[in-house]
Amino acid sequence: MTATVTISKEWIPRIAAFCCNWCSYAGADLAGTSRIQYPSAVRIIRVNCTGRVDPEFVLNALDKGADGVLVSGCHPGDCHYTSGNLKMRARWTLLQMAVEQAGINPDRIRLQWASASEGQKFADGVRELTEKVKNLGPFRRGWQ
Amino acid sequence: MTEPVPIAMAQGSSCWGCYQSLIDIHLNLATVLPLLDIKYWTCVADFKLKDLEGYPDKSITVGLYEGMARTEEDIHLLKLIRAKCKILIAFGSCSCFGGIPGMANFSTIEECNEVKFRNNKTVKDGELPTENLPAIAPVVIPNRDIVDFEIFLPGCPPTSSLILTALTALLEGKPIELPPHTVCHYCDREKKETPIEKILRPYEGIADPDRCLLEQGYICLGSATWGLCEGQCVSHGVTCRGCFGPPPPIMGDQGAAAISMLGSYAPLESEVLADTVHDPLGCFWRFTYPTSHLGAIRIKREEAKTK
Q: CA-CA distances (angstroms) from residue B81 to A20, B77, B151, B241?
């Protein structure tokens, strides 16, 4: 008996996801243990807090070949370090404006809040971003 | 006395401010000039491009290149001076990071031509000049991506004392040692408390002369900027705009660092920030856009268009 291997021709985006250790990383873990399905496009990078995510990480990811970037952290007010996510929220506003000004569709980047108990919310966020990025097409690779 | 050192000084698209700053070392010129054998410096003497082309490769010890490479002629000059010089210095922020001319990359070349030539508000029946002028590059590429440099000397312009320090060290064959501190290190203003409550535009209110400008709400890029200027602007009551680029290692993303800094100082609501900061790209990446990540993405996209 021979197994037939079919290689999907469909393009799957590459999305870098920065998840905070205390909420969203645990949320992603919960999504996994709860068997919640979500697109395999994300590559999760654990950081201690979204406040640790320098805007340079997001821009560098886009520059180095990511099609989209997700930053996921605790809800405002719930930060393990009291205010890290508020700092990220302020940075995000400016970052989003700058990205749009530079001619990049701001739908490629997403900031979301998902606590450790919100596995479904994390998965939904990933799905939504993946859909948006899929509609926008490949980022850098599409140009060559 | 030792033999004078052969030196060539070239200028791309720029304002000549860096060479003005070099000349502003005033009486020290009397000590520096006899040590130099000027091989090429079109701004002050009647050199032609063919003079530079005529020298054997690597025959000139030191070369300085000021400005961006915007036209085909600039690109040729940059490659030429690289071939002729042993040590090539990126002189000034335009040459190091793209500087003010690098902001042309915010728009496409057609948009630039439209504003500058075809629909220029001060010109009647404007048209794109085509005769007797070098072709314009479709996108500004940072100099460091065209040739390799041995030394980056940023600043808009590099201060006279910085130029003197660097040139003296170079002529004596010593390494150029520059302090790595940011502008805040040289700022005497007092820091009291953060976070700040609101962001002010430069024309709003009257700034307390003794307190940190950022804490008062004015966007000051001092903490994201290399302090080789020794805090000239902040000590005269003006916010730092980041003209010396990021601190060592100098090719970091200054704009991203500035946004990161502002997020820590002013963790405000999104709407408030969006209302007060109108032009993030021009505010945070004013001097370093072409060498930043966003600028690199833009360049790649514009290049892909022409392929």
A: 50, 6, 14, 31
CB contacts under 8 A, B 39-78 vs A, are none
Which residue in chain A is spatially nearest to B305 when comparing CA positions? A143
Report the residue of chain A nearest B107, measured CA to CA. Answer: A102
pLDDT at B159: 93
CA distances from A46 to A60, A121, A133, B79 (A): 17, 18, 22, 44
Tens of pLDDT, residue by residue over B161-220, are 999 999 889 888 888 889 999 999 999 999 888 788 889 988 898 988 999 999 999 999
Give contacts of A56 with chain B, Cβ < 8 Å.
Answer: 252-253, 256-257, 260, 293
B5-11 and B85-91 as β-strands: parallel, antiparallel, unpaired? unpaired
Q: Which residue has the tokens 């660092």?
A: B257
Q: Tell me: the pLDDT tens digits for B203-245?
A: 898 988 999 999 999 999 999 999 999 999 999 989 999 999 9
Q: Is the interface score ipTM higher than 0.90? A: no
**Is the omega angle on the peptide bond into residue A138 within 30 degrees of 0, that is, cis?**
no
The SS3 call for residue B195 is coil
Candidates B128, B134, B160, B157; CA nearest to B49 is B134
- Describe the strand order of the beta sheet including A42-47 as a list of residue ranges: A42-47, A15-20, A68-73, A109-113
Residue B114: exposure state from Cβ atoms within 10 A (0-12, 13-18, ≥19) = middle
Its pTM stands at 0.90
- Cβ-proximal residues to A142 (8 Å cutoff; 6+ apart), any chain: none
Query: What stretches in chain B show pLDDT beneath 70?
Result: 1
Q: Are B261 and B194 in contact (CB under 8 A)?
A: no
Confirm or reject contact between B15 and chain A (CB < 8 A): no
Question: What is the bridge-based pairing of β-strands A68-73 and B5-11?
Answer: unpaired
| CATH superfamily assigned to domain A15-135 | Lumazine/riboflavin synthase (3.40.50.960)
Any idea what DSSP says for residue B85? E
Is B297 in Cβ contact with A62 (below 8 Å)?
A: yes
Which amino acid is located at A58 in the chain?
A: V
A140 and B293 in contact (C-beta within 8 Å)? no
